[in-house]
Amino acid sequence: MNSVFLYTPKFEQxxxxxxxxxxPYRAKMVYELCYRYGLFDYPWVSVLDPEPExxxxxxRFHSREYVEALRGxxxxxxxxxxxxxxxxxxxxxxxxxxLDFSLLVLGATLTGADRIASGxxxxxxxxxxxxxxxxxxxxxxxxxxxDIVIAIKRLFEQGLERILYVDIDAHHGNGVQDAFYDTDQxxxxxxxxxxxxxxxxxxxxxxxxxxxxxxxxxxxxxxxxTDDDAYIRAFKTVYPPVVRAYNPQIVIAQVGLDTLKxxxxxxLRCTNNSFQEVISEIKQSNSKVLALGGGGYSVKDVAKxxxxxxxxxxxxxxxxxxxxxxxxxxxxFETSSEELxxxxxxxxxxxxxxxxxxxxxxxxxxxxxxxxxxGIT
Length: 377
Ligand SMILES: [Zn+2]
Hints:
This protein has helices at residues 26-36, 64-73, 98-117, 147-157, 174-179, 228-246, 272-285, 299-313, 349-369, and strands at 3-6, 45-48, 123-126, 163-167, 186-193, 217-222, 250-254, 289-292. It is an alpha/beta fold. It has a single domain (3-374), classed as Arginase, Chain A. It has an eight-stranded parallel beta sheet with strand order 2-1-3-8-7-4-5-6, sandwiched between helices. α3 (98-117) runs parallel beside α4, α6 packs parallel to α7 (272-285) and α6 (228-246) packs parallel to α9. The chain is globular and about 50 Å long. 51% of the residues are buried. Zinc ion binds at residues 169-171, 256, 258, 295.
């Protein structure tokens, strides 16, 4: 096995705005935690410093007008015409280097995709990628470039024809779903807080693809207050049979961690215990996994979770070289590797009944209406 972690200190030179919840410096926090816990100290692991992609690469998915609008916004000055492309909203502010940042994220994701496609790597992780909401002609939901759609299109060009995309971000991966809704070359599976209660208001169980793509989109909406138990049950009911039936050549996983109970933008109640189980399922499901960060706004918790994800993807245990030697916070915000793991969290019995009923209904719908298209009995 060979694995690559994509990271450059250039990521944290960018800031959407002072109070914007998307923090590019999350990438540095994950890098530093992985480093601290020895998760790069293995012969098969390399850390790559990605280069920005050329803007022309965006044209695989985005319109020329949109790329030009983003180029115009790159100096950081807003002009009202940019709003036609979603630029300058509070979600997607115009900031200095907005195009440079997008091309750097894209460069990192495509480096990971290329390494896997060429056989040089089996596992790649770009913690700042996974910008699943960006549309062909507009930015939305904190996403300016859809690195996922572009990576998939590039993999098509390299001859791949069965790509499974799994999205565990708390928000529905609408940009990716829309791009491949009518094809069977991408198996799209998304677990997310129901569009009834959160942005982007899509991803209902009856959105299941169209034409040749019918059955190749699987949406699992989850109710507010979904806990680890319900999450794992939903994931294990849907993901393993879908992977077995589809038999993908590669799995692309958007591993957003805004599912955590501490996340300020969502209403789920998960801990990183269910996250670890899900990452482990994803890792076991295919020898080739391109993992992309996505959302997650309780920044320290996200850094801890993604550090655990990197460990799981590499079959290694985090260990703390300083453990037992020193107390206090001198070596960073975690003082022992045990602190990477969240304590269990329980929701009330009444709430749990409601959550379970909701999830059971969605799972029954999917088993009855979507699985038959995939030959799952
Ligand atoms: Zn999200």
